[in-house]
Structure to design on (269 residues):
């Protein structure tokens, strides 16, 4: 049975950074986050059922907002630090934080990330999925697939007492092997009792470094992977949407996860 004080002392003596006790969720908190994650996944399922060529990204926002409310949740992005919509919709070269717009129409060959976060009974579930519309190029299909595979490899390889930067090492190594680049500036994060908590989850890094990962930690892993170079910029017109600097396509997948004594468990996908 995991004992925080005992394990924290052990790793501190080894000179290894340990999570604060606040980062370790109680069983009650984990169950609350699990339920929020379940609701969040159902909202993304609703998007999956309805997304199509010819709809606007604002139509996706309407689906997310209405389904979230129907299920008893609250869309966490709405008015978060001024964000004006209930979901992020990032199309093609938009890396993340795309703002739904009635004038942005989904076209044949587009790829889009839909990033959804739900508050339910005070807990947060956070996940994003990629959708490919119509005749998507083989290279774009590969980008979407490899991005998800890099995330799934973390589930296979990251165990209790792995190190934080092992996550990024696995992701970047896998994506580079397939000719893609990983965005460094944006990462995953602790989540559950708030939208964004510590620790910051890097999607690149040196194996065997960083904070030790204890059972009870809840966080997202959400690699953002570019077809071209890794460099990005923020759209000055809205101060939210991040694009690839070279205009290349970008893909992202995100899960909310809990570290159990046996490994990572998905709470929202």
């Amino acid at each position: 049975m995991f004992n925080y004080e005992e394990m924290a002392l052990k790793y501190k003596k080894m000179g290894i950074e340990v999570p604060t006790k606040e980062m370790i969720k109680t069983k009650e908190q984990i169950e609350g986050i699990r339920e929020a994650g379940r609701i969040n996944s159902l909202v993304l399922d609703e998007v999956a059922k309805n997304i199509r060529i010819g709809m606007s990204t604002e139509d996706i926002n309407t689906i997310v907002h209405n389904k979230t409310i129907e299920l008893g949740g609250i869309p966490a992005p709405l008015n978060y630090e001024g964000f004006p919509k209930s979901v992020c919709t990032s199309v093609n070269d938009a890396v993340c934080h795309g703002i739904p717009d009635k004038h942005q129409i989904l076209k044949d060959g587009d790829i889009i990330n839909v990033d959804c976060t739900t508050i339910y009974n005070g807990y947060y579930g956070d996940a994003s999925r990629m959708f490919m519309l119509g005749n998507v190029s083989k290279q774009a299909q590969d980008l979407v697939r490899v991005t998800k595979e890099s995330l799934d490899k973390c589930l296979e390889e990251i165990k209790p007492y792995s190190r934080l930067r092992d996550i990024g090492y696995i992701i970047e190594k896998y994506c580079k092997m397939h000719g893609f680049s990983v965005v460094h500036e944006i990462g995953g994060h602790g989540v559950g009792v708030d939208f964004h908590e510590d620790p910051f989850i890097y999607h690149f890094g040196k194996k065997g470094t960083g904070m030790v990962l204890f059972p009870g930690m809840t966080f997202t892993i959400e690699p953002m992977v570019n077809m071209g170079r890794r460099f990005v910029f923020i759209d000055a017109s809205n101060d939210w949407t991040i694009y690839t600097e070279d205009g290349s396509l970008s893909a992202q997948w995100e899960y909310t996860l809990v570290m159990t004594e046996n490994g990572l468990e998905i709470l929202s996908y």
